[in-house]
Amino acid sequence: xxxxxxxxxxxxxxxxxxxxxxxxxxxxxxxxxxxxxxxxxxxxxxxxxxxxxxxxxxxxxxxxxxxxxxxxxxxxxxxxxxxxxxxxxxxxxxxxxxxxxxxxxxxxxxxxxxxxxxxxxxxxxxxxxxxxxxxxxxxxxxxxxxxxxxxxxxxxxxxxxxxxxxxxxxxxxxxxxxxxxxxxxxxxxxxxxxxxxxxxxxxxxxxxxxxxxxxxxxxxxxxxxxxxxxxxxxxxxxxxxxxxxxxxxxxxxxxxxxxxxxxxxxxxxxxxxxxxxxxxxxxxxxxxxxxxxx
Length: 294
What we know:
By secondary structure, the chain is an all-beta fold. It has strands spanning about 5-10, 25, 35-40, 45-50, 55, 65, 85-90, 95-100, 105-110, 115-120, 120, 125, 135, 140-145, 165-170, 175-180, 185-190, 195-200, 210, 220-225, 230, 240, 245-250, 255-260, 265-270, 275-280, 285-290.
């Protein structure tokens, strides 16, 4: 029987996922959940942006506060939107947690005890509001910096960056990778880490770009799609958090399938002992899809 949560566009999807999946609700009391990441000790972390918190959660243990405050410790927030907390999360090669901080306009590093600013400015100005982040095995950090955390979600050249962009931080050097979006958002790496994908949720920025991670040159447009969070699976298929649900594309950008959810997903990550589970942060909800990958 057809799974009611699944729409199949192409039978290639059947080679990628198990279609008899169930969607579990791990929590439904978030404000705006975002930025999930799997910890190999057996739990997930995610941000609740307006609450300025990072939570810890697992299939067997209810959410609990992991870090507070997570994205803003400023006394004056008059130049910010209500989205002041942390957003994207990622672990580096030393198992430090890297945190996109909207309010502080920085990328922070947390070792489990101490938090410090890792990337705090570009051309002597704070970032707008670092949004999503991924770390390569060689330590290169890629992150997006839209103005969602600024007042009215608009750029403020006097206090922050004059443009929104995707950045890379490699061997202590920080540079702009992509400035083709006004609202850059999701970022992810291919399984072999040779390609970097980036996207935007804005309708007038309906394109997913692919970059070569070694040369940092644009390879081209993979798909004409919008997405918030974006991830690859082990077969280089792309999973997009969209207004319709989790949209699955193949490596050429062809639509394979759609997983419908009760609330709009903002981001997602692979996790579980096998790496085949998909955790989805979707506004007030945290969804877990067990053993989704084949």
